[in-house]
Amino acid sequence: MNGKSSIGIMLIAIGGLAVLHLLGIKFSFIIGLLLPFILIGLGVLSLSYKRKVLGSILIGIGAIMLLGKLSVIFIWILAIGLVAGGVALIKNNSRQF
């Protein structure tokens, strides 16, 4: 499959999801998760066609959107790390007495 066919398939899929949304079938959660990956994929595809500016812009937008989705995971990891660090400090201080 060449690049134009893959872009065409992606556009058909996005348009089909938009039509389903207009009909009342909500796929907002799925679209919200897939859209950053679709933009990154289109950016990589654009880079392969020597369109550096467009590819870089699409990858950048997709990466920013993806970081927004993954921020919850980063917050959980930070919270667990802080709790584990606090427990470790308490255990180390209780052994000194």
From TrEMBL:
- Transmembrane ranges, per UniProt, are 7-23, 29-49, 70-90
Instruction: Enumerate the UniProt keywords alphabetically.
Output: Membrane, Transmembrane, Transmembrane helix
The UniProt record lists the LiaF transmembrane domain at: 7-96
Keyword presence, S-adenosyl-L-methionine: no
**InterPro entries per UniProt:** LiaF_TM (IPR054331)
This chain belongs to the protein called LiaF transmembrane domain-containing protein
Q: Which organism is it from?
A: Paenibacillus yanchengensis
